[in-house]
Amino acid sequence: MSEIVLYNTRTRKKxxxxxxxxxxxxxxxxxxxxxxxxxxxxxxxxxxPDLLKRFLRSEGxxxxxxxxxxxxxxxxxxxxxxxDKMELAAQKTGQTAEEIAEKYTKLWQEDRARLNCQxxxxxxxxxxxxxxxxxLAKALEEKGFLYRLDDGIYFDITRFSRYADLAxxxxxxxxxxxxxxxxxxxxxxxxxxxxxxxxxGVKRLQEWDSPxxxxxxxxxxxxxxxxxxxxxxxxxxxxxxxxxxxxxHTNELAQSECGFDxxxxxxxxxxxxxxxxxxEKMSKSKGNVKSLDDLVERGYDPLAFRYFILQAHxxxxxxxxxxxxxAAATGYRRLVKAVVAVRDVVGEGDAEVQAPYREKFRAxxxxxxxxxxxxxxxxxxxxxxxxxxxxxRDLLLAFDxxxxxxxxxxxxEEETAESDPRIDALLAERxxxxxxxxxxxxxxxxxELAAEGITIIDSPEGSRWSRK
Length: 468
Ligand SMILES: [Zn+2]
What we know:
Blueprint: E1 5-8, E2 13-16, E3 24-29, H1 40-58, E4 62-67, H2 85-93, H3 97-114, H4 130-142, E5 146-149, E6 152-155, H5 174-179, E7 192-197, E8 215-217, H6 219-231, E9 235-241, H7 245-259, E10 266-272, E11 275-276, H8 292-297, H9 302-310, E12 318-319, H10 322-343, H11 351-366, H12 371-383, H13 389-403, H14 421-435, H15 439-451, E13 454-459, E14 462-467
Parallel strand pairs: 3-4, 3-9, 9-10, 11-12
Antiparallel strand pairs: 1-2, 5-6, 6-7, 7-8, 13-14
The structure holds zinc ion.
């Protein structure tokens, strides 16, 4: 195992990865709150750890990856305020919280599968771990970190000297104050709920008995309780979207380091950046793209979205729009084509010829998971005039074990030889609109054709279409 470097949010440095137990890695990722379909921006936060996991496995590590399911209402925003998402969805649809949770847990698991994410070792639900959460809260209470207000039990952040470390918070400044809704009696604005009481006279769908009274856990508590149950009190890697660092991860860390008496609780904090939608709608006629289903409806292969994500470094904001997604779909199709051309050749490749390419690919990912650089190596191989088909086959399929684009099985879309004057004319109109940067018209035509089961394939040579 050669050296792997990861950027650690807590230290703000790239650090050499050293596992707690040689050869093994424990990794925790914050999962979805299951009250609706996952946003594709949040799916980036699943694809990044999946790439990391695949890479670590290719390096010989045994990886245990845990992702939780938040199926008990936490509050609407990450900042501990607003209404309860699960309860709200239940009110709106007339379903029980359990029914809603089950539906969207399944959808999220399907999204992961369609994106070719590797199966999780554990995928625990918050509602299955209420006793564990109460245990941790009891430990915190015994150590004097908690205090009681009318509406719940709170964590006193001033008792924990490292509270601001992870997100470099300015606890005295305005930033900490305006972020969190004011609750009367809180000792510090950033103090957060560990256990909330069910409001008097209101029957919540989800509530449990506890030593402090009937109610429900604060959102942050579940991740501390479940990660420790499945990975131990001290584990290697915690991942999540960068938006979680300032409140959710900061609070997870505080509860865990105080409750479990560990420092550090997690060795490496790996945070991915946002998808940047730039205010631009993917399609004027059909509203914004939010979920993977929205993309599929528009004729994109889910793996083209995976390909798209691989084109940016995980710590960079990535612009998501129709042009970028079209370019990714074209790139993915070309790569599949390149692999299909060599996939079935028979014979053995030349390990010596392949070695420098393998090393370059590996080095890119070992340097804080530089996927764009790794993709450049993939394209060097796919386009190489000097490599034999056998070596191209070996290399591309080996790289794909890490990239997860399913190149070993991917099929080329039927490239239609059909011609249909009406569709050809619409395509020409769309090409013209794109040339004039009239993306509203271009999107409208794409959507119209998608509704008929026709996929448009864009390339520098122009657009083609195929029927599903
Ligand atoms: Zn979490």
